[in-house]
Amino acid sequence: MISDLSQQTFLSQTVDNGRICRLGLVGAGIAQSKSPALHEAEAKAQGIHCRYELIDLDQLGIGVNHLSDLLNEVESLGFSGLNITVPCKQAVIPLLHELSPEAQAIGAVNTVRFHAGRRIGYNTDAKGFGESFRRGLQGVPLDRVLQYGAGGAGAATAFTLLELGVRHLTITDIIHERAQFLADSLALRFTHRDIRASETPEAAIITSNGVVNASPTGTSKYPGSAMPLSQLRPDMWIAEVVYAPLETELLRSARAMGCRTLDGASMLVFQAARAFELFTGHTADIERMLRHFSRLSVN
């Protein structure tokens, strides 16, 4: 079935002359992704022939139940690896041969490398968010944090927040069982922290130093704000994972309120840089990738 679809809208069957690093992004509703331009531009700057393709489940008309067939096909076509995004970051795990220690601890994969007949899963979101946070929100209070979203991105950001030193973390999600599972999993690792899931996060907002939106709310596909804007306070900090649009409704309102804010751009770039290194074995130039993303964002 995937092969039939690939002939229509998906992967080119042509063979390139010479060696090529062939990569892709698997997810739903990813037409506006900046990943192809980011990876191809960095590869070109380093003299690497790279082609990065979008594999959009929505455009293909398939769901995560076809991931196994899809991985088989891209592997047979000689791909070096894949980036993985919503809604596949957790669903892909049973289809892999090996997980990096970080991916194992987080329970989500956003990068798959094909090597010697094996599929190896990594999580570069956590390091990407951590580096972005340290650069953009250095010195903010970390006693109490509220996070919206407990999917693949949320698992990575919650893990990183706790590694950064958050003492009390409340997680909320439209699927409460998912938030509870994430909170319980993290509590096993971070035994001296207060980690809880909440179906009614309004009370947690009142005492939180900061809020992280790791849900898809705020994207063009799911517009709006995960957090009630009426509960913003000037002393809060707000971090977004969403990068398209770069200024979400939540960020725009938070900045108008005087909050310290962090958009999703640098997390995207930092995680992409680490994935690039895993795919190619070459060290990425972070500053060059950040400059390239800035140019992409104004075009």
Describe the protein's architecture and organization.
This protein is an alpha/beta fold and 299 residues long. It has twelve helices and twelve strands. The strands form two sheets. Strands 2-1-3-5-6-4 form a six-stranded mixed β-sheet. A six-stranded parallel β-sheet has the order 9-8-7-10-11-12, with helices on both faces. A hairpin with a 2-residue loop joins strand 5 (111-115) and strand 6 (118-122). Helix 6 crosses helix 7 (152-164) and helix 6 (125-136) crosses helix 11 (265-280). The longest helix has 16 residues, at 265-280. It is globular. It starts with a helix and ends with a helix.
Offer a few descriptive terms.
299 residues; globular; 6-stranded parallel β-sheet; alpha/beta
One letter per element, helices H and strands E, the order comes to: HEHEHHEEHEEHEHEHEHEEHEHH
Our Rg estimate from Cα atoms comes to 19 Å
Task: Count the beta strands.
Answer: 12
Number of helices: 12
Give the structural class. alpha/beta
Terminal Cα span: 37 Å
Query: The biggest beta sheet, please?
Result: 6 strands, mixed
Unreliable sequence segments = 1-18
What topology, given as strand order, has the largest sheet?
A: 2-1-3-5-6-4
Shape: globular
Helix amount: 40-55%
Beta content: 15-25%
- Provide the residue-averaged pLDDT: 93
Task: Describe the structure concisely for a colleague.
The protein is an alpha/beta fold. The protein contains twelve helices and twelve strands.
Topology, please?
Layout: H1 2-9, E1 21-27, H2 35-45, E2 50-56, H3 57-60, H4 67-76, E3 81-84, E4 98-99, H5 101-106, E5 111-115, E6 118-122, H6 125-136, E7 144-148, H7 152-164, E8 168-172, H8 176-189, E9 194-197, H9 202-207, E10 210-213, E11 237-240, H10 249-257, E12 260-262, H11 265-280, H12 286-298
Parallel strand pairs: 1-2, 1-3, 4-6, 7-8, 7-10, 8-9, 10-11, 11-12
Antiparallel strand pairs: 3-5, 5-6
